[in-house]
Amino acid sequence: MPDDMAKPLIRDRGSRLLEAAQTEPGSPLVGILGTGDFSRSLARRLVASGHQVVVGSRNPKRSAALFPDEAEVMSQLEAASQADIVFVALFPEHYSSLVELKQVLGGRVLVDVSNGLCLNQDGPSNAEQLADMFPESHVIKGFNTISAWALQSGPRDGSRQVFLCSDSSVAKASVSQLCRRMGFIPIDMGPLSASLEIENMPLYLFPSWKLPVLLSFALFIFFYLYNFIRDVLHPYVTSGKSAFYKMPIELVNVTLPCVALVMLTLVYVPGLCAAFLQLWWGTKYKRFPDFLDKWLIQRKQFGLCSFLCAALHMIYSLCLPMRKSARFTMLNQAFKQVKNGIEDSWVSEDVWRMELYVSVGIMAIGLLSLLAVTSLPSVANTVNWREFSFIQSSLGHCALFMATLHTCLFGWTRAFDAKQYHFYLPPTFLLVVIPPVSVLIFRSLLFLPCVALKLRKIRRGWEKTRHIRFTLPDEDCRNGLEDVSHV
Predict the structure, then answer these.
(1) Which of 180, 3, 83 is nearest to 34 (CA)?
(2) What confidence tens digit (pLDDT) does each residue in 273-305 have?
(3) Is the pTM of this model over 0.85?
(4) CB-based burial label for 86 (10 Å; 0-12, 13-18, 19+)
């Protein structure tokens, strides 16, 4: 049976890169200790970048077929003695096997690429343990946030960044230059004490998504139960009608837009709070409360959760006519009209309401799609700050207005119909529409000239407790200074 480990990871792209690679004179000799998947990908990327690579293995004959021909596979002692920069591509529990190389590795740059099995908040980090084992070497932490796939296929967008930290500035400079030649962007994180933070980076599971996702789930549960009591439990208790068939699709479809509109509203609430706090304080140099800081940072996640719920609502709505219950309901209505002798069931008010309701809903989902696409880093990097701010703020508020109007058209006059208050509970749309209407009203207050001018001055450095000479730029955006006090 052939050895599966002898199969290269990616043949086509790697072979093309290696054919084009040529070792540049004066480049450092790079050594890799370890023969795992990451080592193989790293060797191919280094060779493609024009570096001479030696690989240290406990069994060179078996491992030679795994690496490109340009990389020389030898024993760990030989590789460590020849290399200028040594990548330690071993699991931390195997560091002890390198103790016999302690003398050879003295004075060399050791790059620790390992990760932990779980979040380590107390320390020490793997890199710090390696530095304790090899005190005469220059240990640097890096490349642990880069996957083997990113090394094989080349850097893409967010995966271009390589976080580095070390107590040796010379080691960081040499490894930073190596990163740039490989096509990555080195990020200096400071001394080796920052290695614990770097090692924890790949282990976080959506840290900025926890609150938005949990809040979306909680809102979904609340509105689903609320709609269940009104639309399923009420007819069963009052008249004995079974409407439990609505639970899988219809109740979910009514609940999703509620969550979407509330989450979209929460995107713009922290900005309003920040603006009114600055107006109240009369300065921009006072820190916001911690909860507001975190809320402002997580607005993107709130918006994407809103977009997901809105997109699911659109799909569920398109599937409503395909249900058997919808067909039976339509047939029953038709038979009832025939039985009652009704020839024309056209109601202009209902027709207009539905036409407007659907049209505004389409525009709302279109604007939400634009906001979601623009939030992607690859798209956001192609627009300047003014364009990004216009889309996320101006068009974002337009999307909130359209979604609110969509909800109001759905409710129409039912808010004034006593029959709609099942168990004396108001209709769901009436609860949902209050937060966005409040946000839009408060947002409109910021457009008042007296409020907008003061807020603009505050955000350009004006403080009500100080006497400064300051004027706003003219409409043509030219900065102006004049002798003005108590501005």
Answers:
(1) 83
(2) 999 999 999 999 999 999 999 999 999 999 999
(3) no
(4) buried
